[in-house]
């Protein structure tokens, strides 16, 4: 039983969805951009014992 993660942040012009709304250990955050924007960075991040992996929030450019 690992630690939960805090909200990972949501870049401008994007939406983020979670496989587990409680952001528990193993939860996956999936990022997508608004139409006309390109996702730069990881589209998916996983909560690993309280830390989002990989590090760094993607952004929409």
From TrEMBL:
<keyword id="KW-0768">Sushi</keyword>
<protein>
    <recommendedName>
        <fullName>Sushi domain-containing protein</fullName>
    </recommendedName>
</protein>
<feature type="domain" description="Sushi">
    <location>
        <begin position="3"/>
        <end position="61"/>
    </location>
</feature>
<dbReference type="Pfam" id="PF00084">
    <property type="entry name" value="Sushi"/>
</dbReference>
<dbReference type="InterPro" id="IPR000436">
    <property type="entry name" value="Sushi_SCR_CCP_dom"/>
</dbReference>
<dbReference type="InterPro" id="IPR035976">
    <property type="entry name" value="Sushi/SCR/CCP_sf"/>
</dbReference>
<feature type="disulfide bond">
    <location>
        <begin position="33"/>
        <end position="60"/>
    </location>
</feature>
<feature type="region of interest" description="Disordered">
    <location>
        <begin position="1"/>
        <end position="23"/>
    </location>
</feature>
<keyword id="KW-1015">Disulfide bond</keyword>
